[in-house]
Amino acid sequence: MKKAWLAVTACLLTVSCSSSPTPDCIYNCAPSTNAGNNNHNSNHNGNHNHNSNHNHNSNNNHTALTEAQRQALFKYLENQVKKQWGDKDYLQAGKHRYVKYFDGYRTRAHIDFDNGKIYVSTVANYAPEATLKKAIEETLLMPADPSQVDIFSDKSIPLNGKPFLLGQVKDHENQNIQWPWRAGKYADYLIANKLKTKKLQHGTAYYVEIDMVNDHLEQREYQYADLIRQAAKRYDIDEDLIYAIVKTESSFNPFAVSHAGAYGLMQVIPKTAGADVFNLVKNKPGIPTKEYLFDPANNIDTGTAYFYILKNRYLKEVQHPVTKDYAMISAYNGGTGGVLATFDTDRKQAMKDINQLQPNQVYWALTNKHPKAEARRYLEKVLNFQKEFESM
Questions:
Q1: Is the pTM of this model over 0.70?
Q2: Which positions carry the signal peptide feature in this UniProt record (predicted)?
């Protein structure tokens, strides 16, 4: 199975691999029985969010943004970028797209994870090639720790630790790029041989395009295999499902953000699923911050903990295990309320209807009758990805 190979590979790539058995509980992580109660209506892509009794070294000491503050932050970023690039060439980070600005918002790095492309561009008037070289180096060597990368400002990236893109990009000599000297050498090659220009509203953009390796997705999967294995064991959620959710939500992009305010690999929204997990599983007040959720360990733990809540609280009355899996996946995207509304406006009647149907009938309803079109597509997409991980 693919998950077994990913676990082995992750073990080989880290120093945390041990022949001793994994303890039943990692950190102080026994899920609270509070999560076993019933009834709620949150989702993760607009109404929900996730987390656990997980005590990773990344804390939640930052102040969580209010919705007004989050909107103001995005608006400020948009205004600064448009001053340099114009309205037509404005680009912001997304779920499957990394975008980071530098140098007074005149320079940017854009990683298209769906298509395996990296674009580094600048509209700087003074020394554009030197500016571009610095941005290429910072992009290739940016650390795997998202807390070191502020995608909401034009701050430079500190080049320390293992590069996030290590193994996902090869240079012109077909070598991995781990050290500054090699990144600089490759940047020089790109500027000398691959530099392109494009006329924009406010001038000229200088840019280079970099191809990622064919298995760049698998390379990212390897990075998080151990975290997924631990979270699956901690909450008794299938590893294949977690992999499928991460692939669907972010294409294993730890810097992922959405218009709805979701963050990280499993696209957790702080005020909904994040709040549920803090309250029901972690037994703590408040909500997780974006800094907390950009941390891959926290994010995977939180997202998986929310599945624990769906399974043991909001959807615990669903009797057939396959039907419950369908309902959980759909609820992760469109909320428990959306799942129930597919069958009846009355919650009790909806649950009764679900339990009277066969799993294939429930699947048909959720992929054809769910109130939200996105949720109808979501269940099918996740299940297809889950089959990939089960069969490999």
A1: yes
A2: 1-21
